[in-house]
């Protein structure tokens, strides 16, 4: 099993690097890209909720929000129910950028999963969900479509 864990770690790093390379010409980091995807899927969100979803510190999310706002990809406003909290919302420019990034991700996924059968993909998905659960992450109980949507972001 140790070799599988090492392969998983190495594959994860390579996948992250591949997405970073693909996103670089668009001026986004993988975390920024993921934040835009969250805002697209869930609508306006507090910075703290984005931080929890991305497993990032408040300082990291504050910096991310600054950069996304400066690029015109999100707006940031004070939460009307808590003046200390900030809410991010995707702009039309951000939505356009996200559509571009989704096209890029489709190309990356096509390359990553070239030669992998649907049966192998299903087995990998089930195994990874079990690993995630064992590691303390909540494995999604959502239908296949939601899991696929997560992969697209």
From TrEMBL:
Coiled coil spans: none
HTH marR-type domain mapped to chain residues: 1-133
One of the GO BP terms on file: response to stress
Record-level Gene Ontology MF annotations: DNA-binding transcription factor activity
Superkingdom of origin organism: Bacteria
InterPro entries recorded: HTH_MarR-typ, MarR/SlyA-like, WH-like_DNA-bd_sf, WH_DNA-bd_sf
Protein name: MarR family transcriptional regulator
């Amino acid at each position: 099993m140790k070799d599988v864990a090492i392969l998983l770690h190495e594959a994860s790093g390579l996948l992250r690097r591949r997405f970073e390379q693909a996103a670089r010409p668009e001026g986004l980091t993988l975390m920024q890209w993921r934040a835009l995807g969250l805002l697209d899927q869930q609508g306006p969100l507090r910075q703290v909720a984005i931080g929890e979803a991305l497993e990032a510190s408040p300082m990291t999310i504050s910096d991310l929000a600054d950069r996304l706002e400066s690029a015109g990809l999100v707006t940031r406003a004070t939460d009307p129910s808590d003046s200390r909290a900030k809410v991010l919302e995707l702009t039309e420019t951000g939505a356009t950028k996200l559509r571009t990034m989704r096209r890029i991700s489709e190309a990356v996924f096509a390359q990553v999963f070239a030669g992998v059968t649907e049966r192998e993909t299903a087995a990998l998905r089930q195994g990874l969900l079990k690993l995630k659960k064992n590691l303390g992450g909540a494995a999604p109980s959502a239908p296949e479509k939601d899991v696929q949507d997560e992969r697209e972001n």
